[in-house]
Specification:
With about 250 residues, the protein is α/β, with parallel strands linked by helices. Helices cover about 45% and strands about 10% of the residues. Strand 1 and strand 2 form a beta hairpin.
């Protein structure tokens, strides 16, 4: 997953950091955490059909059946796995969708109300922050995104943001957004996935600060059985089959 997010690569028999560090380290951490959240949702959808069904229903705003969802695959538009396997769907600068779904025939799943002539791709916009009012409130007020926003609130401020959002839109005479349909609490949909994302915050901050190396990050995640597969499954993709890491 770490490599899939695009900021750890494997070269010269070791892991290396592959990300531009900004002067504002907190901004760098949050940017990297956004990619991790994207990768976590995609992997959780791949590994758990019930989770995939929940997120696809939100992304499409339709009550999709399980047998239909089983034919749909979640993709992160900015993930390395998408770049390798589905390059035509790789779009790291997509301003609207961090996650999309491909149907069994390779077409993008569509949102409610789409037709064969006019349609809108189902998708999710993923946000990670410990200061949601400063980071995403204005986007919500202005309805910047045409797909649901999934918020990983690292500081447990989802409902504070939601309350402020309701008040501000009401004051402007705008229709209210629907909680868990337009503005979605990641923890309410997939608590385990939410905790997995939160787990990485301190590790990513330490990586950006130079207190740990990319190898340390991989090794640290291995200590936790619930996180181990999440990290290693993607981090080792593309690694030569005869290479082994020894602890």
């Amino acid at each position: 997953m770490i490599e899939d997010a695009g900021f750890v690569r494997y070269e010269n028999n070791k892991f290396a950091l592959s990300v531009i560090l900004e002067i504002d380290k907190k901004r760098t951490v949050m940017r990297m955490m956004g990619k991790i959240a994207e990768a976590v949702i995609v992997r959780r959808c791949r590994d758990n059909e019930e989770i995939n069904l929940k997120w696809l229903r939100i992304a499409s705003r339709k009550q999709i059946r399980l047998d239909t969802a089983q034919k749909c695959e979640a993709l992160g538009t900015g993930l390395e796995s998408t770049k390798r396997k589905y390059p035509q769907n790789y779009s790291p600068s997509d301003p609207q969708r961090d996650i999309i779904w491909l149907t069994g025939n390779g077409l993008r799943a569509q949102m409610k109300g789409s037709t064969g002539i006019v349609g809108m791709d189902a998708g999710l916009q993923v946000k990670v922050s410990n200061a949601g009012i400063a980071y995403i409130l204005n986007d919500l007020i202005e309805s910047r995104y045409e797909v649901p926003i999934v918020y990983f609130d690292l500081n447990n401020d989802f409902y504070k943001v939601a309350d402020r959002l309701f008040t501000y839109r009401q004051q402007r005479g705008l229709p209210p957004l629907s909680i868990e349909k337009d503005f979605v609490h990641a923890k309410a949909i997939d608590p385990e996935g939410y905790e997995e994302v939160c787990y990485f915050v301190d590790l990513i901050a330490a990586l950006v600060d130079g207190r740990i190396t990319p190898d340390d990050l991989i090794n640290e995640a291995e200590k936790y059985p619930t996180m181990r597969n999440a990290v290693l499954a993607s981090a080792f993709e593309g690694m030569p089959s005869d290479v082994h890491i020894i602890h």
